[in-house]
Amino acid sequence: MKLFKYSIQITLAAAAILFATACDDKLDEPAENIAITDSTDYSIAENMISPLIGLYAKFNDKGWEANPLMSVRGDDVNAGGLGDQQDFAETDLYNYNKDFWMYNSAWEGEYRDVITSHSTMEQIQLYADKTGNQSLGDQYIAEAKTIRSWILFNISRTWGNILVPTSSDPTELLAADITSKNDVMQHISNQMDEAIPFLPDMNPNQRTDIRGGVTKYTALAIKALANLELKNYQAVADATSQIISSNKFSLEADFYELFKIPGKLNNENLLEMQYSDFGQGSGDSKSYLFEFFGPQSWTPKVEGAGSGWGFWEPSLKYIKFMLDRGETVRLETSVLFTDRGIAEIQKDPNYTTLPAWVSNTTRSGDEINDYARALFASGKHYLPSDQLTPGRTTYGTNKNFTCIRYAEILLMHAEAITQGASSSSISADAAVNLVRERAGLTAISGVTNEQVMDEKFAELAMEWGTRFFDMVRLEKYNELSYEGRTFTADLIYLPYPQNQVDLLPVLKGSN
């Protein structure tokens, strides 16, 4: 399937309208911006949640292109080639085109959600002022602040020095100064310190008002991620220790099912983008575009289930790394093999004999056929055809998109300790071995930072660019120079989209 190439041009006047909207299932209408409050009665207490519901809906409905663009550059994953969207493949090769539509669309979409977060906070405060329920208002504002911080975190990891809005007025960006990446990460950490006291003290799946909504532990996780970028390892250990000591999270026993329907709102998940077909075989459905990641050709167990587009491919380097470790469940889960891909592995004399389970037929009975664009597909973005709601045929329909999970918390905790931090919860050995045990591997002792990074490679491949950003942070650029690519320090950040530089000259030369 050929993607429709497009470029979104947003004037500031249009942006003021677009950025202020936040639609939701409950109210198919804009969450009103502070500038048009005359039509809203902020004294109706039960409506205070409406802007927040709108923000969650907007968060779940973000543009599909942002995640693959931010995640494609590590040595764990390659862009599927041969065909359209050549500049996406070139990005994977560290050849960046500032005019590529995906750069501009991802930038605009992420900033739109940042501005929507501000609009949400402003509206909630109006409700709190009118109703006198500041306590509930503080919680809802903290939730919006947490979502905003997650978005800023990903923008800054991708583009480095960025603009940090302080209100819902998009024209503020015209006069805004550039904020350095380190300052963005410190800002996020500070924001999470402000939010944490007001957030629910529970697993997100325990919430009854907005099931799966952010909690204290989501904010602690984002704080840990931001401080990891700052190499403030003690802050990482402190935040992850609080999550671990809460005993509110656990690893899903079945790694294979974690990324499928049974993994939705799992005890392992701290943040996920939620989708649903409402259990109906037709009618309304809220879905992420998982087709982008799926194989172009397959013979599904359930006849009629649609295939994907083939733009996302686990790397041969990753697969060989996993085979060398004797990995089974994590490799089976992460990689969908084709016969052509298996033959490519076996060209290497070290891998002529593969484990018997390596097959182009998944555990769930779907057969992955050869296709031109890639040798492998991502199992983490795969939904077995027999888990589709009867009547639904689109690839991945009803599957959630996990953002942060407990395994990453454990491994960040271990990483911080091996970098000199102290722990108030568990040891690095204990944290790593919890993850290894789930993967069917033997325990290790005296864990080193190198072993932690190997565990992160094995566990978190193809998830939010974690591997790329780990290697950049540790300056292990040689790991990112693989399969014909050459990575250097000047390639860490994507260039700002040219459309944005034209609109906001302060961006010129800033990353």
TrEMBL record:
InterPro entries: SusD_RagB_dom, TPR-like_helical_dom_sf
Signal sequence extent: 1-22
Keywords carried by this UniProt record: Cell outer membrane, Membrane, Signal
Assigned protein family: Belongs to the SusD family.
Domain of life according to the entry: Bacteria
Annotated RagB/SusD domain residues: 268-482
Any matching Pfam family: SusD_RagB
The protein's name in its UniProt record: RagB/SusD family nutrient uptake outer membrane protein
Gene3D superfamilies according to UniProt: 1.25.40.390
Species of provenance: Labilibaculum euxinus
GO cellular component, one term: cell outer membrane
PROSITE patterns reported in the protein's UniProt record: PROKAR_LIPOPROTEIN
Subcellular location: Cell outer membrane
Lineage, broadest ranks: Bacteria, Pseudomonadati, Bacteroidota, Bacteroidia, Marinilabiliales
Key word Aminoacyl-tRNA synthetase present: no
UniProt entry tagged with the keyword Membrane: yes
